[in-house]
Design brief:
binds FE2/S2 (inorganic) cluster, homodimer, Arc Repressor Mutant, subunit A, 53% helix, 7 helices, two-stranded antiparallel sheet, DNA-binding, mainly alpha
Chain lengths: 143, 143
Amino acid sequence: MFSNSAKYAIKAVLYLAVNSSEEHKIMIKDLAKPINVPRHYLAKLLQDLSKKHLVSSIKGPKGGFYLSAKNRKEKVIDIINAVDGEERMKACLLSLEGCNANNPCSLHHLIYDERQAILKNLNKTSLDHLAEHIKSGKSILPL
Amino acid sequence: MFSNSAKYAIKAVLYLAVNSSEEHKIMIKDLAKPINVPRHYLAKLLQDLSKKHLVSSIKGPKGGFYLSAKNRKEKVIDIINAVDGEERMKACLLSLEGCNANNPCSLHHLIYDERQAILKNLNKTSLDHLAEHIKSGKSILPL
DNA sequence: AAAAAAATATGACTTAAATCATATTTAAGA
DNA sequence: TCTTAAATATGATTTAAGTCATATTTTTTT
Ligand code: FES
Ligand code: FES
């Protein structure tokens, strides 16, 4: 469903949503350990997200990564799409080209509605919102 | 969601469900072309499914692959699990180990119910049933 | 201004998935 | 029984995803 990279990115961004702020930036090495993601790989991912303005970063001493107020308003789907590309979540399950309701592949009926529902959920849920869930103990931040 | 291999396997098995019978076996080369799957790769996949008794095959001249009556009763999920392993469809989306309702990861609530619904659909739908759909024009067999 | 600490940029390496190739076995038909 | 046509078995090659390493740039602190 998601690539490994997207999973890593989500974990990292949520960790930042819960633990960082403009006044409390987090260095890559202090982020990689708790979420259990290879350090250099994570660096690459975050640099990419930073370039796309989905996370904030400051170089140099006292620098690090954090989420700005604006970053926190982003939806989960935006992180996923930034990493995996827009297509991955929308593509036909059997990778058929002309997938639509008029030309449904054999698995379409077994999956399409639920898939749309998931998309909708990912589209409407902000990082902020998930961070609140985590803080209030409704869900956990995975290792 | 599914691996490339699983997609190929589903396409192949459905093609066999629609077009083959014990009296009309299909050779690998005549199967690979219409469903647009690399020939040798497909051979490997089907040999594996054959070993697991999910498809039937006969060697030698006049031989080929086909689906027996029993094969046709198998559920879609069985094909998927045979190729991708039992775990893949059940694993936590963020690859967390102790994923369950008591210990839900941050995305759990956004996806779990829909995912279960999909699983249920794949679990109850037989190849036979999908083949009927295709024959009656309710869905198509993808290239 | 110099030194140090951080992200950034670039690229090399490794691993697993996907693809391709070939030799072997089995069964049919002449 | 011999030839031929098919699946089967095994393994090599390629490609893409994931991982690791290092040099560069930027900013802070002294
Ligand atoms: S046509 Fe394949 S999922 Fe819609
Ligand atoms: S805990 Fe991750 S999907 Fe259930």
